[in-house]
Amino acid sequence: MHAPVPDPRDRLIVALDLSSVGAAESLVSRLGDTVNFYKIGYELGFAGGLGFARELIADGRKVFIDFKLHDIGNTVARGVASLAALGASFATVHAYPQTMRAAMEGKGASPLRILAVTVLTSYDEGDLNEAGYAASVAETVARRVAQARAIGIDGIVCAPTDAASVRAALGPRGAIVTPGVRPDGSDAGDQKRIATPFAAIRAGADHLVVGRPIVASPDPAAAARAVLAEIARALS
């Protein structure tokens, strides 16, 4: 028997980087069944997005809450418990050991998957140096992945350019989620370490977060289908 062909829709996460629930509702409506997985970050989250997340989940969609939590352990644990009760599929925390341990405690036995953010895709060596880090991007990512694996974190968020090295360090079980994905010909925007959907999947990414190339497109559904086609080609 042949193994079932993976559904590319399970791999694409569209970032709802929009300023109102109305705009998000309109985009989701335009995308229809083309997309089944959505990310909600600060912009929409602080404009009523958590209520919209409940609606998406009730409608059978998957939701990724990308608030990159980082605080004292008790605060992180209680916040993650609330996201687990919401029914979110993914939630992010910064990859600091105390924060990661608290998040894993907070999710309990729920199916919520905790993703640790290593180094933001908008950061390069100069940005780390400015922030006081002596280690390089690669060294910082490697250290944080090793700590995340030891803690038993569910997955890693990293730049697509780091996906291959993260997969080698993380092993086959953890999920790798990559923002900074730009189809050929797309504007990089404020991202510095980017790759195409095809390259990101081939490098070991499990899920791709795509925002502006789809959200800002005059035909979001067509833009999403183009990304899905690249994912399918990489999976085959």
UniProtKB/TrEMBL annotation:
Sorted UniProt keywords: Decarboxylase, Lyase, Pyrimidine biosynthesis
Biological-process GO terms, alphabetical: 'de novo' pyrimidine nucleobase biosynthetic process; 'de novo' UMP biosynthetic process
Keyword Lyase tagged: yes
Domain Orotidine 5'-phosphate decarboxylase: 11-227
Listed InterPro entries: Aldolase_TIM, OMPdecase, OMPdecase_AS, OMPdecase_bac, OMPdeCOase_dom, RibuloseP-bd_barrel
Residues noted as binding substrate in the record, renumbered to the chain: 17, 39, 66-75, 121, 182, 191, 211-212
GO cellular component terms attached to this protein's record: cytosol
Gene3D superfamilies referenced in this protein's UniProt entry, alphabetically: Aldolase class I
Recorded GO MF terms: orotidine-5'-phosphate decarboxylase activity
EC number: 4.1.1.23
Pathway: Pyrimidine metabolism; UMP biosynthesis via de novo pathway; UMP from orotate: step 2/2
Statement: the UniProt record of this protein carries the keyword Lyase: yes
Catalytic machinery residues: D66 (for ompdecase activity), K68 (proton donor), K68 (for ompdecase activity), D71 (for ompdecase activity)
Coiled coil regions in record: none
Catalyzed chemical reaction(s): orotidine 5'-phosphate + H(+) = UMP + CO2
Oligomeric form and interacting partners: Homodimer.
Main function: Catalyzes the decarboxylation of orotidine 5'-monophosphate (OMP) to uridine 5'-monophosphate (UMP).
Stated family: Belongs to the OMP decarboxylase family. Type 1 subfamily.
Protein name: Orotidine 5'-phosphate decarboxylase
Chain's gene name: pyrF
